[in-house]
Description:
Shape: elongated
Order of helices and strands: EEEHEHHH
Mean pLDDT: 77
Distance between the termini: 64 Å
Oligomer: single chain
Amino acid sequence: MSEAGWRPCATCKKPIKWGAKYWVCSVSTCNRVRMSLAFCSVTCWDAHVPVMNHRSAWCEEKWAPSSAPAATSGSTQTPSSARRETRQTEVRTQRRIIPSTPTSAGAHKEVLIIASRLKAYIKQRADMSTSGDVMEILSTIVRGHTDGAIRRARAEGRRTVMARDYRPLD
């Protein structure tokens, strides 16, 4: 942290200015407190992906803090502990909680079934193949049963869905 910039880009090492837009990698190992990578552009992030061997990643847009924290003359913190404290604060403030509710976008479209396991079960049990659209249909069925289980748990005043909340299939 200096007057020139908030922190350097992880790829090109150019300073990311205070209050400027920057990008972070979506992969959790690139966003840890000790190794939080920030990129000055999407191009720099794109150069990082093959080096880190990410299979499925995207970059998320963030904003650097608007100004440097005011340094107090009587501060007992060492520069490294101040940096660590600032970084932990940044991580806490950047974390977003995305509710997994039926109203969130894509919650009704996400596949909940592990395709490889279901296909292996059907192959082993009946020596048959499985169509690709089976996962979507089964996910819809699972969602319906789960919604019913959630209603039953709420009716009993619980915040935990238990096995007994699912009605047995006939």
